[in-house]
Amino acid sequence: MTGPPPKVPVISAGQVATATLLNQCSAVATFLINKPSVYVQANAAQALTTAGTPVSFATDVHDTDSTAMWVVGSPTKLTVNTPGYWRVAYGVPGTTASTTCWVRVTTGSNNPLGSGNTFACWSGASTANGGAVFCVKAAGVIPYFLYQLDYVELIAQPSSNISTDTSVLYASMSLEFVSAGY
């Protein structure tokens, strides 16, 4: 879906249900059943640098949004096509270095703040554990209203240059529509 989600129509007591009203209710129900969400996953180890690296995802495991929030040509980005509030969750595996991860939101051309502004949220961290596998994870609602064409990236910044560990799992991220804000 591109653009704002359908609004729930106002129905007054005793009002006769017209075909238009029923179609509006149907559109809302269809949206709620098929609300936009995406789950992406890496399929190989990735080099992470101390400068902070956007995590690249190679597989779109689940995407209910027909406008494709994830595309092969921009494998680090999940682009919002339905404005509103979104829930994000991620996991990044590693072994040898303390690692901090966070979600970076970048404003797109439809955002009233203008294009290219960045905001960080939902950071998570791990400490080096003598070679044992760890996974940095975090989840929650992004505290900013996202407009159509804003995009979300997962940034990983280890204390020393490393690769993600794929012996147990691959890096992954999900984005799920929560509310239109009205």
Give a brief description:
The protein has 182 residues and is mainly beta.
Describe the protein.
The protein has 182 residues and is mostly beta strands. Helix content is 8%, strand content 38%. The protein contains one helix and twelve strands. The protein has a five-stranded antiparallel β-sheet with strand order 4-1-12-6-9, with no helix packed on it. Strands 3, 5, 7, 8 and 10 form a five-stranded antiparallel β-sheet that branches. The protein has a two-stranded antiparallel ribbon with strand order 2-11. The longest helix has 15 residues. The protein is elongated, with a radius of gyration of 19 Å.
Beginning-to-end CA distance, first to last residue:
18 Å
Strand order of the largest sheet: 4-1-12-6-9
Bin the helical content. under 10%
Overall average pLDDT: 85
- The secondary-structure element order is HEEEEEEEEEEEE
In what range is the share of β-strand residues? 35-45%
Helical segment count = 1
Q: From the helix content, strand content and strand pairing, which structural class follows?
A: mainly beta
Low-confidence stretches: none
| Shape descriptor | elongated
- Major sheet: size, sense and barrel closure? 5 strands, antiparallel
